[in-house]
Amino acid sequence: MGLKGEFPRGIENCTSITSLDLSSNELYGTIPSDISKLIRFTITLDLSSNQFSGAIPSDIANCSFLNSLRLDNNKLQGPIPPEIALLGRLKNFNVANNMLVGPVPRFINSTFPAESYANNPGLCGPPLELCGTKHVGFMLSTVLNRRVQFACGFVTGWSLFTVLGIYLFFFGLPGVKKMLLFINKRTKVMVIDGNESPRGEEVNNDPKVNITLAFNRLFSQ
């Protein structure tokens, strides 16, 4: 059909739709988390061969009339929601060629072949290999990679914020910088031989007096 963009939410207005085939398009983004409200009475849902990403929404389990659900050949991540296994009318189910992880749910009235889950390295359990150390390690590495990405993003953002703050302090607020440098210069006393300042002035040990004197000199210039 040549469709591009995100999932078309306008389908909600097609209240009598029973079959929705959006396969082999260029749809992207996430599958709506409230998809059951958009396709209340749909029997067949085919979103295969697109570019959908993110998690499979557990709300699909509320599409109680579904007989066929195809989500294969996308970029979906995370586990297969166990709630989907409660779809008692489901006869055709395919999530192959995604990036799914975790155990394959046990459907209450159907079983699906290994081809329905193919090319998802993180999936395990019948009809695939039993979940073991290999798959646990894969899932842990996936979680760790996401946390590392988050940490890197946080550090990068904080660094940029700090640099921006320093830039504003030194370049965006020249008056404040000048005043602080002047106060520091005027109030810093370098005692020579125990009782002499660099300018030969009498040293006053009261910091309040020095700061007041500095402000007076600043605004008198």
TrEMBL record:
Residue stretches spanning the membrane: 155-176
GO cellular component: membrane
Assigned keywords, A-Z: Glycoprotein, Leucine-rich repeat, Membrane, Repeat, Transmembrane, Transmembrane helix
Matches recorded under SUPFAM superfamilies: L domain-like
UniProt key word S-adenosyl-L-methionine: no
Membrane topology, from the record: Single-pass membrane protein
Organism domain of life: Eukaryota
Main location group: membrane
Cell compartments where the protein resides: Membrane
Secretion signal span: none
Keyword Transmembrane appears in the UniProt entry: yes
Family designation: Belongs to the RLP family.
Descriptive protein name: ATP binding protein
The organism of origin for this protein: Solanum tuberosum (Potato)
Record lineage: Eukaryota, Viridiplantae, Streptophyta, Embryophyta, Tracheophyta
